[in-house]
Structure formats: structure tokens, C-alpha cells
Amino acid sequence: MALVLGPGGGALADDAGVREFRGPAAPHVAEREAGGAGVRWVVWSAASVADLGNPSPLARVHDLGAVHRLLHGGRREDEAAVLAAAAGEPEPPEPRRPRPLRDHGPDVLVLDLDLGGAAPGVVGAGERAATALRVARWQEQELRALPERRARPGGIPLALQTAWSESAAALLAGDLAVTGLPLDVRAAAAVLGEADAVRETAGARLRTWWPGVDLRSPVAVLGALRGLGFDLVNTRAWQLERLRGAHPAVEELLRWRKAERLLSTYGTAWLAAHVGSDGRLRGAWSGADAAAGRMTAEAGLHNLPAELRVAVVAEPGHVLVRADLGQVEPRVLAVVSHDPGLIAATRDADLYAPVAAALRTDRPTAKVAVLAAMYGQTSGAAGVALRDMHRAYPRAMAVLTEAETAGREGRDVRTWGGRSIRVSEVAAPNADAVAARGRFARNAVIQGAAAELFKAWAATVRLALRGRGEIVLCLHDELLLHVPVEHAEAVEELLHASLDATAGRWAAGSGVRFVADVGRVQRWSEAK
Asked: What residue stretches are annotated with the DNA-directed DNA polymerase family A palm domain (predicted)?
């Protein structure tokens, strides 16, 4: 069922034909959702149906723009790019509005683009709905044609399941932008006030050693540190951390920088710009970034520093329920690689414990080894540990090495769920850039797959909540829900059950165990 909305009306299209309507779309949507047939709505984009309400009344969708990005990579998800791909045409320049499609039968799409700069043709709601349905069918064929590495429950290919969860993530992004994150403005202002006091006192002390030095200038600070006898190449934090205790100016500089970093992004102007009168912090959300496909947000929502988590607080009669996927990327690597040793390690709630035993080392070193393997780090202690990783988990390391080789050679890669990662568009003018491109591809195939699992989980939770709470934050591997107190226990159980159901589809037959740390708090800062 394709749905297109326009000023004063819209259109619906299905196998029975196209029907245009006048007035609000909500009654038409409610009628079909109430039918219980599990209708999946085809939309050009989640943004195009945002006016239906918050949260969106659409339970299941096929978002043509989101699926286009899954199939083809990059950041384009506009109608012109979607239509060009379906018609087998090169991607048109941005921005571009297509003329109507000429009808060449139900299985053929021919794109008529206005390339001469003249006014584009007008496409009616009915024609756009019919076109959307045809594009969705073409996209589904493309998804089904992608290599499938494991049988799926119900015979639905993983790439098609990923398309649906990516579409749901696009809807969720719209919901999050409107819902917002509950914020105690007074608590946030108090944190910022304390940071301002630290910045002032630390700055005053630094000026006793360095009068006239611009503390915001790395070059000036480097010269000042050299004047104290420190032979440094730069003033990066890890360089300064090694000098703690060597001179009081170093400690004050670190304190000043921490406060300055917080205030430069999250000052009172930030509060005024992004927190509404209802105490909700809001910013625009995207269902997938242009790299590996993680959800992203503006207004500082995805980089909210630990100091401000004390200000994220449940409203009266509610609690925050936090769920964090545990060690998700190495567990995803186990699924992707079919490595029997790593699969066995995932059965432990703490994956790094059995990995440490297999590597004959301690847990901290084992954790470094696993992370270094996925991020392509080869120097220092990581290099020694990686040799043992090759011995203990050869299949997992082979998958990572294959991805890195593809990246170095400028070949695009796909994630486990089918997302195209456009490595070929990453410039590599020298050997260092070639190596960096290889590391990017090595990590993207795992990070991207983990993002797909997370969004599939979030989509399952979104459907299962049914008015018992709302998702207010998606942070990489973490979900934060705002829930009435009386539903908290049920929602905690729902989160675990949704993860089991999602993993059962996403990692079908792999034997890999996924775990989540779930708990309720009043303030986000109280979470582990």
C-alpha cells in the first residue's frame, strides 16, 4: 500500500488500483491499520508523512529513500536519486525534481528528467503513489538478489528485513525529533555554572604562569609549555595526560580545557536554542549517517557529555528505562564470520573472559585485542595481541582482513545486512590515506552491521511499546525510554524479549548470544 500526501489530500495505491482523496489522511490510515492485516506502507520518505502525527501511526513502512541508501550507499535519498536508480540511469545532480514517469508497463521504469533547466512537470498524487509502489517492487527485487549467507525464518532475506528496519528507523527519527529528551533545565544550568567557575579559576591560575597567552590557541599553548621545559610536538590531551604531576600548570590546563570544551558547545545559548518550554531537548534526527549507517542527531543529542547526564531526568510519574547492548560489535563479528571460537565466547555474558582464556592473557588485554582487530590498530601492545587473535579466531580475522584489503584497493563493501559502503569515494592520494581507507572499510562492515542490528531492535521495541512509553534517545548501542512507573517492569521485560526476537531473525542459526543491560533510573547519570 503506497501512501502519498499533498496539500489538502493525497492518494493510496495497491494492487487494486489508485484512489485519490481529499482532506486529512488519518482516517484512511487508521482504517487500514485497524484491519489487522499488517499493511506495510510505501512512502517516498518518513518526512513526507510526518504530518500524520507523533508518534507516527504507521506501524510498518517501506521508505523508498532509506532503502535507496541501503542499496546504493552515500547520503542521497531524494526522489530524483531513487527514481534514477530504479530506471537504471546515472545519479542526477542535486537538487533535482523528476518529470512524470512514462508508462512502459508494470515492470519497466523510464525516467524523464528535466536536464535543461525548464520547469519540472507536475506529478499528481495518484501517479506518484502508483510510481512509489512500482519503485518499491523494484527495490524488493534488488534486495532479494543480494547474496544471502544464511537461511532466514519465513524465507525473508536479511537484506529485505534490513530495508524494513531501516525504514522504521527513519520513522523513529521523526518521532524522536518531535518527542525530545526530558531535561531538567535547572540541573543543566547548574552544571554549566560549575564549569564556568572552573574555567575562570583555572584560567586565572594559568595567567600567573603565562600572562597574555591565548589559551584557545594550540600554537600559543605549545610555546608556553615548551617555556616550562616540556618538549612536546603538540598539545593533544593524551600528551598532556602523561605530564600530570610534572607541573601545576598542566593540571590547570586540563581542567580549563575540559570546562571550555563543555561550555563552547553546551552553554546557555544551547539551552535557549534547543530546550522547549516543556523541558524537552530537541534536535533533528537521521535514520542513517553517510558512512556505516548509524543513527545521528543534531543539537548535541549524540554527544551529550557525561557531566550533563545528571540533567536528563524522568518527569513526575515516570522513570527512564535504559537498555545497552553488551559488547555488540564482537558479537556481530561472530555472526558475520561464523568463527566457532568467537561464537562460543558469545555464550558468556562477559565475552572478554573466554577470549582472555583463548589468548592466554588477562581480560583488559583481551579487550584491547578484540577492539584493535576491528579498528585496525597494529602498534604497541595491540600488535602483540593481534597475533594471538589470528591463531585463536582465524575466520573472524579473515573477514576483517578481506574488508581491509577491499578498502585499500578502493572497492566498495557491503555489511551483513546489505548496506553498500562507498569506499571507492574515499580519496587516497598517498600510502597513509590508502591505509586509513582500509581501516575504515575494516571497521565499517562490523560497525555498520551492529547499527543494523540495533535499529532492528529499536524498531521491534517501537512496535511492542503500544502506548506504554516512548523512546527518547538512540545512542549507538543504547536505547533510553521514558516510561510511566506502572509500566516500567513490563517494558524491561519487553526490551529483553524484543532483543531475543530480533537476534532470532538477524542472526538466525548462528548460535551467537546477544545480551543487554537493562535497568530503570530517575536520572540518566544513575545508570552504570
From this structure: 307-487
